[in-house]
Amino acid sequence: MAEKSSIDTNSMTLTRFIIKEQKKVPHATGDLTQLLVSLQTACKVISSSVRKAGIAKLK
């Protein structure tokens, strides 16, 4: 019998949401979308660096 995962695989990612909302605006240039995705990437990089630094201090 297969176990059910508690992770929702159909969840809306931030990127998908941003693109979906951009498509609602016919005259959108994509500049805001690009800015928001860049901020998202920067947050992920910072988060990764903080996690790595935390692990290094545990040694």
Automatic annotation (TrEMBL):
Pathway, per Swiss-Prot/TrEMBL?
Carbohydrate biosynthesis
- Note whether Magnesium occurs among the keywords: yes
> Cross-referenced InterPro entries, in alphabetical order?
FBPase_class-1, FBPase_N
What are the alphabetically sorted keywords of the record? Magnesium, Metal-binding
Please list the GO biological process terms of this entry. fructose 1,6-bisphosphate metabolic process; fructose 6-phosphate metabolic process; fructose metabolic process; gluconeogenesis; sucrose biosynthetic process
Domain called Fructose-1-6-bisphosphatase class I N-terminal: residue spans: 12-58
Molecular function (Gene Ontology), one example: fructose 1,6-bisphosphate 1-phosphatase activity
What is any one of the record's Gene Ontology cellular component terms?
A: cytosol
Protein name per the record: Fructose-1-6-bisphosphatase class I N-terminal domain-containing protein
Q: Which organism is it from?
A: Armadillidium nasatum
